């Protein structure tokens, strides 16, 4: 069952075209990574899916959307628990339980009253992801969320995200520059050019995935192929 | 201790220099009384209680005028900063009024409101409005798009969007606008009390001038200046206490 169907999507800014005739489908619970050069329209695609920018074409997306950005992922004027609770409607007691549950998920129980500027980059991203999940998001759009993290934190965050995804089985579209990251996380890797997806790679590695797979010959071979396609 | 010394030493140095110049014979001590004489005048004002009444009345006018001007400035700034149609309608009027020296409208305000506190408060609020408006206006325009997009996904009402996202995201600019407004507010307190007042620090300076009490004039000016500096520092302390994240963001 498709959660996202995009047909002939076009996005243009003033007098230049960012995306032309992009079409693809994403199944429910699927983890799709999108890679491409700078300016290939990766972020524009996510912004169009979230209805942030005007577009032409057909976008059908069922369920709630959550989005995680590379920068300004959490509101700096709210504490970690306030960020997670942001926008929650309904009973205060239920919301409180929801916040506690997601603080645990983000492994930030001891940082509940801290502000984002007191956290590391990885912790801020965990807050943003936990906030999206607390809103019962069905589709998580992630725009280079780990782009500003160091290699070690990035590896840790990838493992954490996979654990969260395995538990919650949300549909994820993950935009990244990093081919290794895309291969490690996703079921499918799509290579984007402004004129559309040029190639699709099905990731053959079984789940749950171990970071060790990054050192295998098969992983390296696939990485080279994707690099060539970009 | 070191911080206190850095604060107090320049003040003591200026006072010593001032005392020496005033007593040197190069200047007329009646026109340029030494700080020791100013201190005596200030002490007399404290003993008689006039300084407290003047202080109280000036502070009351300042606080009410500053609050009114700031609240209207923040609301207008945020709305014009985010809603283009409202900005198009309101900004030309603000831009015409903004270059007017606030002091220039005092005669008109006296005609409209008389010489009561209302006139003084209005003139302070009028002057304070513009720096606060421009702070809030620029603050609302520079909000990172990702904050607004994140909030949009949570389907906030327009009012909640302003209260929970646009206002806090604009705060650093609003605070800087209010700090400028505090200084302007003090100028307006002084100017508005020069005519048609029977109390206040401006009034005290005015009648001291008429009675040729330069020492009293300078003492009242010292009180006004100190009040201005203390108000600014209290405002900074209060914002740090109320919005602790601001200090973290600046770091």
Descriptive account of the structure:
The complex is a heterodimer of chains A (230) and B (251). With 230 residues, chain A is of the alpha/beta class. Chain A contains seven helices and nine strands, in the order βββαββαααβαβαββα. Chain A has helices at 42-49, 80-85, 92-105, 121-134, 151-168, 179-185, 217-229, and strands at 2-13, 16-27, 31-35, 56-61, 65-68, 139-143, 171-175, 188-193, 196-202. In chain A, the strands form two sheets. In chain A, strands 5-6-7-3-8-9 form a six-stranded mixed sheet, sandwiched between helices. In chain A, strands 2-1-4 form a three-stranded antiparallel sheet, covered by helices on one side. In chain A, helix 5 (151-168) links the parallel strand 6 and strand 7 (171-175). In chain A, helix 3 crosses helix 4. Chain A is globular, with a radius of gyration of 18 Å. The mean pLDDT of chain A is 89. With 251 residues, chain B is mainly alpha-helical. Chain B is 83% helix and 0% strand. In chain B, helix 3 packs parallel to helix 6 and helix 10 (214-242) packs across helix 11. The longest helix of chain B is centred in the last third of the chain and has 37 residues, at 158-194. Chain B is globular, with a radius of gyration of 22 Å. The chains are: A alpha/beta (230), B mainly alpha (251). The A-B interface holds A 47, 50, 52, 65-67, 69, 71-73, 75-78, 86-87, 115, 117-118, 135 and B 144, 146-147, 149-156, 164-165, 168-169, 171, 243-246, 248-249, 251.
